[in-house]
Amino acid sequence: MKKAISVITAMTMAVALTACGTSTSTSDTTSGTATSSKSSETSESSSDAGAATVEDIETVKDRGSLIVGITDFEPMDYKDDDGNWIGFDADLATAFAEKLGVDVEFVEIEWDNKILELDSGSIDCVWNGMTLTDEVTSSMDCSNPYCNNAQTVILPMDKADEYKDIESMKDLSFAVEVGSAGEEQATANELNYTAVANQANALMEVSAGTADAAIIDSLMAAAMVGEGTSYEDLTYTINLNSEEYGVGFRKGSDLRDELNTFLKESYDDGTIDKIAEEYGVSAAIVEQK
What we know:
The chain is of the alpha/beta class. It has helices at about 55-65, 90-100, 115-120, 135-140, 180-190, 200-210, 220-225, 255-270, 270-280; strands at about 25-30, 40-45, 50-55, 65-70, 80, 85, 105-110, 125-130, 140, 145-150, 150-155, 175, 190-195, 215, 235-240, 245-250.
């Protein structure tokens, strides 16, 4: 499913989240059932965090798979008609796994529990359009930014002209993804909101009329909202911030530096541009230096 993404004016914040409680993960893989158990060895110091190096590369290669935590989030991670995970992030993660010489396993997680999933060892990384907020970068070792994004307000198309700024939206009921940058913006702007499982559900709430508006990622909005999309009756309006996406690993993980090298090589050889064009996110790509 290729979607052409119109560039939203200000690419702003993304998916800031906190871990709370426990979750049950489900997985789809290119090589079979995802493995939940994982042993990590530590050795020398991490260059920037002062933590012991976590030898995740060796663990991943011994297991034969890279376990990637995701949610259903078009155009970054979503399923095709055959039930396979595709998208800009999914395809890039698959290419990274191939470079490591292993298969990729995608595990669908509860986004609010992503840090818990990572620290418990049930996944190797969080790779799902994740905003590099202070909270995220303090809880994980994150890759260099690879995409720009923003949090944008979604409204029914026939109501959009009534709401030109955030002040005019104070009495609306919003739907936002729990633990997300959208929820953070709803809180910061003192909006009335209900937290739902994911951004797709937030769109469904607005379309069904059970919420007046939603706050979601601009990249998702451009792919899912408006003429020729799944939600032709909805439109995106104002942006609330600016953000960058990164991939998160356990503190001290040697996979972080390996991915940064891969991102630079893939940017230089055109691999990232090719995948971005496939999913209509070319305008959001961050140069890798």
